[in-house]
Each structure stands twice: as C-alpha cells, then as structure tokens.
Amino acid sequence: MTGRRRLSIPPHEEELTGPLHDERVAARLGLALGIAFGICFITGLVSHAIQQPPWWFTWPTRPVNLYRVTQGLHVITGIASIPLLLAKLATVYPRLFTWPPVRSAAHALERASVLVLVGAAFFELISGLLNIAHWYPWAFFFPTAHYAVAWIAVGAILVHIAVKLPVIRRALGAPMGDSEDTPASDAGPSRRIFLAAAGAGVVAAILATAGATVPWLRRVSVLAVRTGEGPQGVPVNKSAVAAGVVDSASDPSFRLEVAGPDAVVTLSLADLRAMPQTVADLPIACVEGWSASATWRGVRVRDLVTRVGGSPEQDVRFISLQESGLYGQSVLPALHARDDLSLLALELNGEELDLDHGFPCRLIAPSRPGVLQTKWVRRIEVIA
Ligand SMILES: Nc1nc2c(c(=O)[nH]1)N[C@H]1C(S)=C(S)[C@@H](COP(=O)(O)O)O[C@H]1N2
Ligand SMILES: [Mo]
Q1: 263 in a domain, yes or no?
Q2: What is the CA(350)–ligand 1 centre distance, in A?
Q3: Share of the chain above pLDDT 90, in %
Q4: Using CB atoms within 10 A as the burial measure, which of 66, 92, 161, 212 is most buried?
Q5: pLDDT score recorded for residue 178
Q6: Cβ < 5 A residues, ion ligand 2
Q7: ∠ at Cα 352 (349, 357), nearest 5°?
Q8: 246 and 161 share one domain
Q9: Does the beta carbon of 373 sit less than 6 angstroms from any atom of ligand 1?
Q10: Same domain for 147 and 24?
C-alpha cells in the first residue's frame, strides 16, 4: 500500500503497523511514564503523610528544603507525564478499539486495566493541574480524591506491567533503528522522530512550569503559577482580604494567647518583640509546587512552649484569626516544635510581616508544606 494507510473501523490488529503503533516506541514511552508516575506517586504519598500523619510517620526537619524538593518533584513529574501520556495514547489508542473486544481472560483483564489506568491517570493529571490553577469545578475535596485515585492508577499500572511483561521485554530489547520493516513509503513520523517529539514536549512542559520552584528557570516558565513577586518578594496564596482577617489582624489591641499545662499567657506584639529573636532562612514550599526562599525573624516556638510549661516532647497547635476555610489551624509535631529554626515569625526579608504574609505573627518551620505554615496566628496550644 502506498501513501496513507487506511484503517478499517474498528481496525484489525494487523493493520496497526508503522512507527506510530510500534511496540518499541510504546514500550519506551511506557517506561518513561512509569518512572515519572512512580516518582510522582511516592512524593505524593510523602506529602499526604506529612499532612495526615499515621502514628508511625515522622518527617525530618533537615534539610530545610526537603519538602520543597519532594513536592517540586511531585508537580514536575506530574506535569511531565501529560505529554508522555498523550504520546503513549497516540501509539496505542487504535488498539483500544480493535475487534473482537475480548479474546481471552488475559485479554479481558488487560483491557479492563487499561481502561482504569487511562481514566485514573487523566483524573490525576487534570485534577492536579486544576488544583494548581485554583479552579475547583467539582464537589469533592481535592486531596482526598487525588490521593484515593492515585492508588487506583498505581494498581492499574502494576497489572498492566504484569500482563505486558513479555511484550515490554521484547520491545525494550529491540533496537530503535528504522530498519527494513518500516518501508520508506510508510507515511508519518519515524520512531525516533516521534520519540524525540514526545521528549521535546516533556522538556517544554517542565520548562514552562519548573520555574515555580527553580529560581533560575523563572523567566522561561510561562505557565508557572504564582511565581510573580508578592509583597516582600514572596508570593501569596491567600490574602488577608480573602481570609477575612484584615480588621482583626491590624487591630492594635491584638493579643496572642499561648496555652500550656502550667499557664495561659497573653502576649501583645510588643511583648513578642521583647523576647529573644532568631533569624532563619527557610522556604515557603506550597503543595502546588511553587516555592520561595526567604529570611524570617521572630520568636522560637520552643521558647513559647517553655514559657507555659510545655515540654520538647509535645506537639503544638497553631490557630489563626481566620475563621473560614480549612487552613485556619495546623499542628506542629514535637520534632519540629523544639527545632532551633521553628519560629513564630514577626518579620520577613528584613521588614515587619506584610498583612498578606500573616501579620502580626505567623508560623514558619523547616521542611514543611506551605499549607501548614499558618498565618495570622492568634492562639498557640501545647497539646497534652
Ligand atoms: N491562616 C492561613 N494560613 C495559611 C494559608 C491560609 O489559607 N490561611 N495558606 C497556606 C498556604 S497554602 C501557603 S502556601 C502559605 C503561603 O504563605 P505566604 O502567603 O506567606 O507566601 O501560607 C499558608 N498559611
Ligand atoms: Mo500552599
């Protein structure tokens, strides 16, 4: 046949030849996708465990950029998976419509797993992207759904790999050259060109977004969200206006409550400023993947805990002036609470905290998700 190949609809398996539908291409794309998804899954589990820690889980305080790196990888590998998934589907999608639909039990299992896999993978990538864009066109709580479907996707990937193992081994073992089995008359891109194009798509997707976390990429990252300068050189996710705290946070009669086993003390901003101050260089690392280094100054959490009779073995809860929404509270595990670098910050980059960064005081601790760095703190409780 010369020129474009025409497929019958639905196509017969034998018609699916040529570089686009070559198993060598599909297997290499699958390998790249498997690695990207694997990193994305593990870093996602880590982020989930930090936010909803099971009893056996502890997350270290050093290096201070650890969460910044794991969550940056989570978002970058997720975004890199989008062009990879589309390229992989381009190589295999006609097979999803071949006739007869089911030929054996193994074939049925394979097809079902592929259906689940494609659905779950798209759900994860699209819901993740929309979350970064702060667009929630759904009724479910994003983290719960994104987390649950991740397990479905990984389960389906493992079934898929198990079923396809013989093909995968054969395909990855075969050289990629355009050999005699791809006639010159065959229209469409060659295997190498197709793979190179998919690779270019991945590089473009990474460059377009990674600047949110890698400072020197910032200028080329046209798709990166919230990389622009916020007040004091740090982006803002939730402003004081959006949180409804403008009046309470700027009220001169503001008092911080600190509650512990021995006492409940009430501290004015002047009282906090009169306590020993510590400077710490720590990043804000948002779950959405953006991050920024900053210099903070304020009172050690440890000193506040001691002041009310708390011990270094106790977790500490931070409660915001913000009454609406889900992020008005966080719990700082004891390991972090007793750390030298965990501060109730009063200053950011050499100035009094901007209202949008949590004035009069906010939590900042090493190696933590941004979502747990509570702003506009009004009460601190040493947890029994
Ligand atoms: N009270 C309160 N604190 C909050 C939030 C919030 O919505 N309310 N957002 C959190 C999130 S998601 C991030 S990433 C950081 C961002 O801090 P920044 O706005 O100072 O950069 O603040 C955290 N602290
Ligand atoms: Mo965040």
Answers
A1: yes
A2: 19
A3: 62
A4: 212
A5: 55
A6: 237, 286, 370-371
A7: 75
A8: no
A9: yes
A10: yes
Average pLDDT over residues 336-357: 98
Ligand 1 neighbourhood includes 357 CB (under 6 angstroms) = yes
CATH code, 319: 3.90.420.10
Same domain (yes/no): 119, 80: yes
Distance in angstroms (rounded) separating the CA atoms of residues 128 and 126: 5
Q: What is the 3-state secondary structure (H, E, C) of the chain?
A: CCCCCCCCCCCCHHHCCCHHHCHHHHHHHHHHHHHHHHHHHHHHHHHHHHHCCCCCCCCCCCCCCHHHHHHHHHHHHHHHHHHHHHHHHHHHHHHHHCCCCCCCHHHHHHHHHHHHHHHHHHHHHHHHHHHHCCCCCCCCCHHHHHHHHHHHHHHHHHHHHHHHHHHHHHHHHCCCCCCCCCCCCCCCCCHHHHHHHHHHHHHHHHHHHHCCCCHHHHHHCCCCCCCCCCHHHCCCCCCHHHHCCHHHHHCCCCCEEEECCCCEEEECHHHHHHCCCEEEEEEEECCCCCEEEEEEEEEEHHHHHHHCCCCCCCCEEEEECCCCCCCCEEEECHHHHCCCCCEEEEEECCEECCHHHCCCCEEECCCCCHHHCCCCEEEEEECC
If asked whether residues 205 and 272 sit together in one domain, one would say: no
Is residue 322 within 6 Å of ligand 1 at its C-beta?
yes
**Same domain as 195, residue 292:** no
Measured from the alpha carbon of residue 132, the closest ligand is 2
Name which of 30-34, 54-58, 187-191 the model is least confident about: 187-191
Residue 288 Cα to ligand 2 middle (Å): 6
Do 300 and 192 share a structural domain? no
* C-alpha to C-alpha distance for 273 and 307, rounded to whole angstroms: 15
Cβ-in-10-Å burial (0-12, 13-18, 19+) of 147 comes to middle
Ligand number, closest to the Cα atom of 287:
2
pLDDT in tens, 185-231: 454 568 888 889 899 989 888 887 776 666 656 555 655 555 556 89
- The total of structural domains in the chain comes to 2
Mutate to test the pocket of ligand 1, among 75, 237, 354 (most ligand atoms within 8 A of CB): 237
- In this structure, the answer to whether residues 287 and 211 fall within a common structural domain is no
